[in-house]
Amino acid sequence: MSDIIECRSLGFSYGDGNSKTSVLKNLDIRVKPNEKIAIIGQSGCGKSTLLNLLAGLDMPSEGEVLIDNVNISSLKERQRTELRAKHLGFVFQFHHLLNDFSAIYNTALPLIINHLDKNEALTKAENILKKVGLENRINHKPSELSGGERQRVAIARAMITEPSCLLADEPTGNLDEQNAKEVLDLIIELNSNQNTALLIVTHDLSIANRMSRQLDLTDGCLKEK
Ligand SMILES: Nc1ncnc2c1ncn2[C@@H]1O[C@H](COP(=O)(O)OP(=O)(O)O)[C@@H](O)[C@H]1O
Ligand SMILES: [Mg+2]
Predict the structure, then answer these.
(1) Do the Cβ atoms of 142 and 99 come closer than 8 Å?
(2) Which residues surround ligand 2, an ion (CB under 5 A)?
């Protein structure tokens, strides 16, 4: 089967001239269907930068990123957004939910944006919120939810489009130990049920050890552990 995400000789620098900071150098990664990969490294080593590049949210300074075999640099912004929406789901350290909307609307949003019938989208959102254990919270707004519950809504929103790969940037970084474990269990369970690949960025080795591959990011370079 072909790779969901691939990067070749990927390099990235912030700024230019005297203020140029090279963060990533000559990286190669291939994410295959169903694979569970952890990218580990110290704070500031470039994990979020790498994830944003693999997600097509930023453009490489050198090399290329392919999503579903399409070089993202060859696309216009709008096509890139569509490619991303079709194949990828995201969970960040901070939930990035819309504060004025209830859990069910936040979850249904990616489908509504994709022009799915609103009632159908809401029914799907309700079903996935049940799967993440929030059947009694569907009409709550983010401010009425705990940190762990907000991350569950963020996971439901990411998985509702049935992405081929979930990209997660320190998804449990803001949670206490118990909630962090529960949220990670949930991500792993949903990913197995939906046959989704998982690329998780973390500085926490106990999370990394639950993935099938661990890649260590140091000095801008990746090494298989
Ligand atoms: N917008 C930016 N402009 C300049 N430097 C940045 C910017 N964002 C991040 N950096 C720098 O790039 C490096 C990698 O950052 P980041 O990818 O956020 O690391 P991590 O996620 O591993 O903590 C850090 O040294 C950070 O200071
Ligand atoms: Mg980061």
Answers:
(1) yes
(2) 47-48
6 has a pLDDT exceeding 90: yes
Residue-level pLDDT at 225: 87
pTM of the shown model: 0.93
Query: Tokens 């960025």 identify what position?
Result: 201
The CA distance from 84 to 54, in Å, is: 10
- Residue 49 Cβ < 6 Å to ligand 1: yes
CATH number corresponding to 35-51+75-224: 3.40.50.300
Where in the chain are the domains?
Answer: 35-51+75-224
CB atoms within 10 A of CB 13: 17
Among protein residues, the one with the nearest Cα to ligand 1's atom 24 is 44
User: Does the Cβ of 21 fall within 6 Å of ligand 1?
Assistant: yes
How many C-beta atoms surround the C-beta of residue 30 within 10 A?
14
Q: What phi and psi values does residue 8 have, to the nearest 5 degrees?
A: -125, 125
